[in-house]
Amino acid sequence: MADAYDFLLTLDLRDDLSEDEVAELRWHLGLGPQPERLCIITEFPEVVLDDNSNPVLDDQGEWRVENAPYPVLAQRGPAWRIGGATVSELARRESPRPGWALTTRQALHPDDFDNVDQLLSWLATHADYDHVDFDGSPRRGGFGQFVGYERFYEDDVITKLLVIKDGEIAREG
What we know:
single chain
């Protein structure tokens, strides 16, 4: 048995991202190199393991923890356990208003959820989640906007919907 979740996220982002934020987001999606300075997720605490995969202890007998940054949505290729492919894309959008279009599908392990949740929180603060009428004028949706899902790899149905609600990306279901 594995702990794998099918994770899909697709949303538009406003045109208010700095160059540093775009560079880090591209890195998190596997589309560019790691920036020198991280500004979206700055802490990636990880317990240091010895050659036998045992935690290394510090002078006080506590587990030694180091910052070990990694891109959280960068998988590409055949999706382990969930079928299909893992992908991520960030594309410039000019219409109906400037911004960014983001889509990612990943096979996530529960150990990854903390960092993914940090990224989701940041994305929610930059989401362009106004609904747009055919004439290009914005109209605000009242019940939250569907932006993705999570599904345990053995489940036949989607178990959690990802929606933007009250300025946050929430899991419902």
